[in-house]
């Protein structure tokens, strides 16, 4: 096994496959970014060419700033994403700690019930969710999106975090109890710092679908003052004419925050993904 791992041919094949996958994954992002700085004719004439002195143009970004309230859309997306991740991580970690730490009747069934949320798409219940939001007066509010995304992200958060919670040393928690620490103090001061890589993994896995979602903003919060960045970008897509410069520019600006956050939390994400495989 050791020879297989150090075999140059295997290493070359593995790295080649990873590089190929990286190129395929980043290619759409690259195309969007370079075409956002080109004229409309250049986008269709040479979509893969880099912008030069003749094709370079900022008309798309200028249109986004003038016609669409980009900063309001960005603010709404940021509020919804950050608030949803906060509640997903908080409630998900607390539920995972309870399932991993305490043995009670129905513990296993509770975990299986939460796991169903991973297998059943939340969009199946869109009609029921809309009726609930109308009844509670939350339509066209950011709270409607925050509550839906929190419910959407909790099953995966509980599933991942509960496995990491079980790996935390019982001796450490029992020592805290002997010292007189409450269960809340043990949870926040002893357990949570040890599962930060797993929480970063959960945050990244939930952040991207929330940030990119168009379905629920279109149904639950279509008002101008509650539009998210993804929904606000649709203003440049018409039935007969589409302003591709503005669309690509809006998408480029929407991609950047996700890329920045991924770079910041990439080390924690990798640790969270790989630590579960090593005992």
TrEMBL record:
CDD domains in alphabetical order: TM_PBP2
Pfam families on file: BPD_transp_1 (PF00528)
Domain annotation ABC transmembrane type-1: ranges: 74-265
Regions crossing the membrane: 12-34, 78-100, 112-130, 142-165, 186-208, 246-265
A GO-annotated cellular component: plasma membrane
Family (UniProt): Belongs to the binding-protein-dependent transport system permease family.
PANTHER family linked: DIACETYLCHITOBIOSE UPTAKE SYSTEM PERMEASE PROTEIN NGCG, MALTOSE TRANSPORT SYSTEM PERMEASE-RELATED
Protein name per Swiss-Prot or TrEMBL: L-arabinose transport system permease protein AraQ
Gene name linked to the record: araQ_1
């Amino acid at each position: 096994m050791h020879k297989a791992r150090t075999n140059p041919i295997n290493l070359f094949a593995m790295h080649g496959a990873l590089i190929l996958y990286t190129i395929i994954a980043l290619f759409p992002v690259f195309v969007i970014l370079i075409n956002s700085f080109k004229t409309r004719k250049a986008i269709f004439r040479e979509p893969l060419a880099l912008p030069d002195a003749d094709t370079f143009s900022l008309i798309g970004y200028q249109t986004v700033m003038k016609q669409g309230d980009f900063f309001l859309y960005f603010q709404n997306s940021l509020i919804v994403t950050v608030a949803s991740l906060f509640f997903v991580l908080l409630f998900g970690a607390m539920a995972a700690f309870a399932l991993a730490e305490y043995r009670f009747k129905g513990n296993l069934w509770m975990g299986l019930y939460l796991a169903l949320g991973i297998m059943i798409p939340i969009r199946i219940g869109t009609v029921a969710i809309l009726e609930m939001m109308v009844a509670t007066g939350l339509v066209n509010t950011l709270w409607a999106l925050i509550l839906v995304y929190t419910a959407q992200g909790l099953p995966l958060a509980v599933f991942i975090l509960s496995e990491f919670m079980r790996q935390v040393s019982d001796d450490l928690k029992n020592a805290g109890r002997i010292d007189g620490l409450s269960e809340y103090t043990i949870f926040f001061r002893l357990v949570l710092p040890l599962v930060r890589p797993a929480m970063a993994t959960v945050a990244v896995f939930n952040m991207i679908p929330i940030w990119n979602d168009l379905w629920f903003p279109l149904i639950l919060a279509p008002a101008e003052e509650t539009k998210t960045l993804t929904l606000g970008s649709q203003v440049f897509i018409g039935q007969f004419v589409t302003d591709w410069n503005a669309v690509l520019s809006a998408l480029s600006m929407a991609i950047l925050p996700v890329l920045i956050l991924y770079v910041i939390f990439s080390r924690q994400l990798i640790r969270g993904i790989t630590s579960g495989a090593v005992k």
